Amino acid sequence: MGKHVQIGLIQMSCSVDKQANIEKASGKIREAAAEGAQIICLQELFSSLYFCREENYDYFSLAEEVPGPTSKLFQELAKELKVVIIASLFEKRAQGVYHNTTAVIDADGAYLGKYRKHHIPDDPGYYEKFYFTPGDDDYQVFDTKYAKVGVLICWDQWYPEAARITSLKGAEILFYPTAIGWAVSQDEETNRQQFQAWQTVQRGHSVANGVFVVAVNRIGIEGAMNFWGGSFISDPMGDILYQAPHKDEVIHVQELDLSRIDEIRVHWPFLRDRRIDSYGSILRRYIDK
Fold first, then answer.
1. For residues 177 and 90, what is the distance between their CA atoms, to the nearest angstrom?
2. CB atoms < 10 A from the CB of 206, how many?
3. Active-site pick, 91, 92, 117, 128
4. Catalytic residue among 24, 28, 41, 44, which?
5. 117 included as an active-site residue
6. Residue 165, Cα to own-chain centre: how many angstroms?
7. Rounded to whole angstroms, how far apart are CA atoms 2 and 123?
8. Backbone CA torsion sign across 194, 196, 201, 203
9. Tens-of-pLDDT digits for all 289 residues of the chain?
10. Is the bond leading into 67 cis (omega within 30 degrees of zero)?
11. Nearest to residue 114, comparing CAs of 77, 81, 140, 143?
């Protein structure tokens, strides 16, 4: 008999009111739990608008300690509902040191720890280097009541090394809280290409590592950015088990059979056949002739 777990993803829009966003997310967590979700993931920086669209010192006031007031609120909620909560927060680590951080809370309300985003973008509309220090801890796997989960964050999605290491540390499911979108001025063909690239690279992480991937994005037009939603779940063969629409708020609960991981890895033994003795050059920035 397989080991089954119910995954809840919450795709939503956000407002300028931090407290209202937290209350909205809390209500949706309750709805997901009522539908049977056991592990519930929120999108990246769910408690605010995506402030990294511009460089503005005022936005540092949104940051908080982790664990801190929001994570403690979710600890109480997780204990009440008996669910695991994965919550992306703007962390103030010290004066002048801030991180893009995800807290993981177990189904008994215990704070299991946090992952600080390693890969920090700096592009038009995504000025994250202005706000976030890269995480200096290792990649994290959390042994929750229902499954072993790895958490990576948005821009980490594009890096196979991050997915590989997290999988090698025992993650059965890779969660990616996300905030990614299209420029409102962009044409539909470019939009299609970008979304397909985003989804395809993560499906590749599922296949290469024999794990489930859960990507949870936000929706809504914020300034010149149209966040594309499209949250999805892929299985260890890269098949899409669910994909959310691009414009609508969604609470979705999906059953995963974790026994599929061993089944797929036995027949597609990519981890067995890794040539770890030949990978030394991966530590170089670029391999010049």
1. 13
2. 24
3. 117
4. 44
5. yes
6. 16
7. 43
8. positive
9. 579 999 999 999 999 999 999 999 999 999 999 999 999 999 999 999 999 999 999 999 999 999 999 999 999 999 999 999 999 999 999 999 999 999 999 999 999 999 999 999 999 999 999 999 999 999 999 999 999 999 999 999 999 999 999 999 999 999 999 999 999 999 999 999 999 999 999 999 999 999 999 999 999 999 999 999 999 999 999 999 999 999 999 999 999 999 999 999 999 999 999 999 999 999 999 999 7
10. yes
11. 140
Would you call 154 a catalytic residue per the annotation? yes
Q: How do strand 212-216 and strand 232-234 relate by DSSP bridges? A: antiparallel
Indicate the class that CATH gives domain 4-272.
alpha beta
Q: What residues are paired with 116 via a beta bridge?
A: 101
Structural domain boundaries in the chain: 4-272
> Taking a C-beta distance cutoff of 8 angstroms, is the pair 207, 108 a contact?
no
**Catalytic: which of 14, 41, 52, 154?**
154
